[in-house]
Amino acid sequence: MAQALRNRICDHRYSTMNSSTDILKDMNERSRDVFRAVVESYLENGDPVGSRTLTRTLNEKVSAATVRNVMQDLEHLGLLNSPHTSAGRVPTQVGLRMFVDGLLEVGDLSNQDRQKIDETMGGNSSGMAGMLDRVGSALSGVTQGASLVLTPKHEAEIRHIEFVTLGHDRALVVLVFSDGHVENRLFTPPPGQTPSSMREAANFLNALIEGRTLGDMRGAIQDEIEARQQQIDVLAREMIESGLAAWENDDSDSARLIVRGRANLLSESGPAEELDLIKNLFDDLERKRDIEEFLQLTEDGEGVRIFIGSENKLFSLSGSSLVVSPYMNADRKIIGAVGVIGPTRLNYGRIVPIVDYTAQLVGKLLSDRS
């Protein structure tokens, strides 16, 4: 399974990545071992790694001076650097990219992680929106990072509309789409509504919906009401306007970005300036400034993609990494994505199978609903 997942990780190559991959091929075994040891230690604890520490972890018995010379060569190649005055080294973004592309060992999804994700998605009572919200919470909880879930933009045509009374001050408007998807909203009906006015309102709308999506219908309804004002009962007209107003402030027909677990990433930040950059990142995401850009990250095809630091402008300022995978509907069309944001020292080998499994599971659940 790990090898199959390895094949599902999409390469996101830049010119620096091409050259760094060539460097990896030209490295001798000792240099690769030292480089791998530095990166794995950094990903595990986030601290610079010194030559004396490495001599205790390498399989080959070499002196600290030899390891130090190798690390200097790797630093000269732009794969490692020395933070501040520390004698230790940490990988650069180029070094992390080379490690991810050429040396990363992707493990299998653990039974514990699988169980947590499965349990979170178990309920169906709150519909698709509730399920995707639980997906975001599950991802942030399991990975201890911040999660992103891009929900589908619903573009199917409407097949049927129904108004259902639940009491004198509560009613339900139900929309059935041509792809089998069903959505409903609670709203407060206008005073004095009767079963006949609700039927008239539904009949009026059902006569308009043929071949129209929800977005199309919104623009046509008011024109039709004004053109046929004498034919529509006042109560029915008020019912139409009140019922569809339940959707007016809801972006259910548009892509929506769910962000969960911000505190996890904020707690991992270091200096105050890093904290401010991460806060700005989340502010931008919540304002949906870059939601289209996030969608574009998934459009190159199926598979997990890894973005490190400045490789994507959405995360370049905060210096964060993103592991993201699209999910598909029953027609194998990409309709959304799930991802995890974290520091560049993410445990990529563990996060990748979690994101991959979650994306496939979401796609299956949405296909089954259809």
Total of DSSP H or I helical runs spanning 4+ residues: 16
Question: Strand share of the residues?
Answer: 15-25%
**CATH H level of the largest domain: which superfamily?**
GAF domain
Quaternary state reads single chain
Number of domains: 3
Structural class: alpha+beta
Distance between the termini: 28 Å
CATH-derived topology of the largest domain = Beta-Lactamase
Morphology: elongated
The H/E string reads HEHHHHEEHHHEEEEHHHEHHHEHEEH
Spatial extent as radius of gyration: 26 Å
* Uncertain residue ranges: 11-17
CATH class of the largest domain: Alpha Beta
Spatially, the strands of the biggest sheet line up as 1-9-10-11-4-8
CATH architecture of the largest domain: 2-Layer Sandwich
Overall pLDDT score = 78
Helicity, in percent? 40-55%
* Number of E-state strands: 11
Largest sheet: 6 strands, mixed
Pfam families: HrcA, WHD_HrcA
Family: Belongs to the HrcA family.
Domain Winged helix-turn-helix transcription repressor HrcA DNA-binding: 30-93
Protein name: Heat-inducible transcription repressor HrcA
